[in-house]
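#lab-general

N.A. 3:47 PM
ok so I finally got the sequence cleaned up, no stray characters, all 206 residues accounted for. can someone with queue access submit it? mine expired

B.Y. 3:52 PM
send it over

N.A. 3:53 PM
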Amino acid sequence: MLQSTDEAERAQTELEGTRVHTPRFHNQEGMIDPEVLAGKSFVLVGAGAIGSFFAMTLAKMGARQIEAYDPDTVENHNIATQAYPESSVGRPKVDVLAEVVQSFAGVHIMARHRRWAGECADYLIVCPDNMATRAEAFAAAKDKGCMYMDARMGAETMRVYLIDTRMQQQVAFYERTLYTYEQAEPERCAYKSIIYTVNAVTGIML
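B.Y. 4:20 PM
back already:
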């Protein structure tokens, strides 16, 4: 269940008034400070295989300001590779994701059941199923000067790009990785996505 409004406001007040230093994060504090993550904002474009697990993992590590965009609903074939229970088939992905993150990490994320429309944050995370959205998102990131992360995955292949859009050399490098739908290699039937690759690319992203 999602937090009530009073509970969410109380949690936010406690977060703002104290350090995010609890026994929950004791085992990771030597690697990453949860307070740093709590102070950053993230916009997630795409709540499919990579996006759903990334949001949950990010929240478990201490992030608190996560906004997820996806117009799709959960379908039966999503259950094998995405962070959704079987009972969620037919429901908006972002709504279910908000419940999953709340249940597993105690974090209330902002769910936007629609296409992303140029919103940015400290970090713009893109993991859609098409290159056109990536190109559009990168243009927005450059315009607003936010950090940009793009995660791509095939059946047993993966690539992750983290780009500081203020650095022209990084921008030029990334733009060479963009291509059109017509230039993409066709995927083999029944050889598109599997859960262990999803988990691996999520780990690399973080």
